[in-house]
Amino acid sequence: MTQDRSGMRRRTVLLGAALLPTFAKPFLSAPASAQASDPLPSWNDGAAKQAILDFVRTTTDPANPGHVPPDERIATFDQDGTLWVEHPVYTQVIYCFDRIPGVVARKPDLAQTEPFKTVLSDGLGALTKLSTPDLEKIAAAALSGMSVDDFRADVQRWLEIAVHPRWKRRYTDLVYQPMQELLHVLRDNGFKTCIVTGGGQDFVRAYAGRTYGIPPEQVVGSAGETAFGYAPDGKPRLTKEAKLLLNDNGPGKPENIDLMIGRRPVAAFGNSDGDREMLEWTTAGSGKRLGMLVLHDDAHREYAYGPAAGLPASKIGAFSQALYDEAKGRNWPVISMKNDWKRIFSFEM
Amino acid sequence: MTQDRSGMRRRTVLLGAALLPTFAKPFLSAPASAQASDPLPSWNDGAAKQAILDFVRTTTDPANPGHVPPDERIATFDQDGTLWVEHPVYTQVIYCFDRIPGVVARKPDLAQTEPFKTVLSDGLGALTKLSTPDLEKIAAAALSGMSVDDFRADVQRWLEIAVHPRWKRRYTDLVYQPMQELLHVLRDNGFKTCIVTGGGQDFVRAYAGRTYGIPPEQVVGSAGETAFGYAPDGKPRLTKEAKLLLNDNGPGKPENIDLMIGRRPVAAFGNSDGDREMLEWTTAGSGKRLGMLVLHDDAHREYAYGPAAGLPASKIGAFSQALYDEAKGRNWPVISMKNDWKRIFSFEM
C-alpha cells in the first residue's frame, strides 16, 4: 500500500478520545451475549474468521503452549487498504494536493513553478502526469514549515470536510467495519493494537484516536524530521521539516517497529508488498503467530485489484502474485473482502 | 547527562517483567496505610516533595482546573544522573569498553589500530586520552554488527556481572530510590512514565522493564539504524548498524518525544543541560506542568558536581549555572540530593 510515498511526513497530537488497551475479560469467559458469542459479526464464517478466533483463543489461554503474556501481545496493522479505503488515491495524497493553493498563496513564486503549476491547473487530474520526484516535492511543500500542533489541527479540519469521490462520505467513514471488530477483539483480549503505515505518521495520528481508538504512540509511520526552536514570543516550538527521517515501507516496517515499539509483534495485518517484511518478521517469531493479508476482490462493494483471479496489478496497493504465493507457503490466511466480509462499512447496517 | 555520546545505539527487547501503567486508585482516596499517607517515604519534607504532591493532586482532581485526562498523563525522565548514578563514567561507556576485546578477537586487525589499541592496553584508563571521535568509534564497534536480539541478551548478561567501582554493586542496584518512588506515585495516578535518555535506546530497553517497570515502547533514546535482512537459514533478521539515526540529547529530546510518543509531556525530570529543551517543551504547554532538576550536591552519599555552591562543572552530567538560573526563573523545583532525599539507594534501608 505504500509505494512512492517517501515524502510523507509526521506530527504530534493529543487525542482526547484515544483509548488505552484494556486487559479485561478473557476471551473464553466473556458473558454469552450476542456480542460475546460472535465478536466478529461482520465476518462470514470461514477460514479467515476461524484463524482469528483460534489465534485469540490460543494466545490468551494460560494453559495453552501458545499462550502469550499480556505485555507481549502486540498486533500491527497497515492502514491504507487494510483498515480503510486506499483507492482511487491515498487519502493523504489528496490532502497534499488540497494544500497546494494555500502553499502557493504564501509563496506566490511557486505558481509558475512545476509541479505546482500543473497541480493548480489540473488538481488531482495532475496525478497521472507527475513523476515520483514531483509528488515528493508536493508532499514536502504540503507537509513542512508549520508547527506540529498547527499541522494536526489542519488535518483534523480537512477530514471534517473532505469527501471520497465515490461514496461522498468523509474518509474516516470509509474504515472497514470487519477490521474495526478485529481491533476490538484483540484489545478486549489484552493486545496492544498498533498502526504501522507507509503513510505519514503525523497525518494518521491526527485521527487514529477517534477513528480507530489507537493513541498516537501506537501509530508508526513514515516521518519527517522536526526542528526544535523558539517562536517570536520565546515559546518553544517544534517545526515540521522537509527532510525524510523514517520511510516506513517494506523493510522499514520491521525496522521502525523495533525503533518505536521495541518488541516483535505476534500478529500483523497488511494488504500489499509493502507489508511483506512486517509479516515475515512477525510470523518468524517463536510460538503462536498470525499474519494475514486483505485481498481487494470486491469490485462491487469496494474495489478489485491485486493477484486474485488475474486481477490487474495496481500502483496503489500493489499486491504481487509473489506475495500471494508466499502467503500460501507460509500459511498466512488471505482475507477475501468478497467472501469473508458480510459488510464492508458501518453505514451498510 | 548526555554530552559526547552521539555514537550510542539501540535495540529491541521482550521484557517479561515490563509493567503496564495502572489506572487504579486516585491519589486522594487511597487507604490510610503508611504507604498511602506518604507515597514518597525516601523524600524529606520540603519544596521538592511538596511540588510533586501538589502536581499529582492537581492533575488528578477532576474538579481542579489543572486536571489532566488520563490519556494525556505523560511524564518523561532522563536516565543517567536522574534515575541512576552516572559518575564516574556513564554505564554504557563502560559496557562499550568491556566489549572491545571481543570485537578485536573477531577482527584481529583492530588490535594494532587506534583507538582500539589504547583501549586494549589501558582499559577505562584510556578514557581521558581519547577524543570524542575516538569514543564514537568505540561505541560504533561495540554496538553494531549483531542482531537486535543478541545485543539485548548480551547487555542483560553484562549487567548481571559488571559492578560499580565505588559501591561494588551491580549498576541496576544504583537506581535512586526516591525516583523509584516518584515513578510509582505517577503510575499509581494514571501517568505513563517514559525514559528519554541521551544514552542508547536499545541499551536502556534491555533492563528498563526489570529495573524501572518501564516497557520498551516507553524508552526513547539515542538510536542507530537497523537493517532488515535474512540470516543464512532464511529467517528474517534485524541487524544493528553503525549509523546514528536519533541523537536524543538537547533539542533531540523534544523532537524524539514527538516522534516516538506523539504527545507533549506534562511533567519532565532531568539533571543536565541536555535536558533543557525537554523541560522547556514540557513546561511551556498549557495547564498544570511540572519540570524538575536533580542537583548532585551530596559528595558523601553520592557525588557532588554542577552549579550548586560553586561546585565544579563536569563533562559528565554538565549542569550549567545558566540552566540553574533558568530553573529558578521558570519555577522548576531543583531537587537537592543532600537535602531532599532521606536515602539515595534501596540498599541503604
Contiguous runs where pLDDT drops below 50 for at least 5 residues of chain A: 1-35
Helix-residue proportion of chain A: 25-40%
CATH architecture tag of the domain at 27-89 and 173-348 in chain A: 3-Layer(aba) Sandwich
CATH fold-level name of the domain at 27-89 and 173-348 in chain A: Rossmann fold
Oligomer: homodimer
What is the general shape of chain A? globular
Percent strand of chain A: 5-15%
Q: Classify the secondary structure makeup of chain A into a structural class.
A: alpha/beta
Strand order of the largest sheet of chain A: 4-3-2-1-5-6-7
Can you tell me the CATH class of the domain at 27-89 and 173-348 in chain A? Alpha Beta
The largest inter-chain interface, given as chain pair and residues per side, is:
A-B, 48 and 48 residues
Tell me the number of helical segments of chain A per DSSP (H or I, 4 or more residues long).
12
Termini separation of chain A: 28 Å
Total number of β-strand segments of chain A? 7
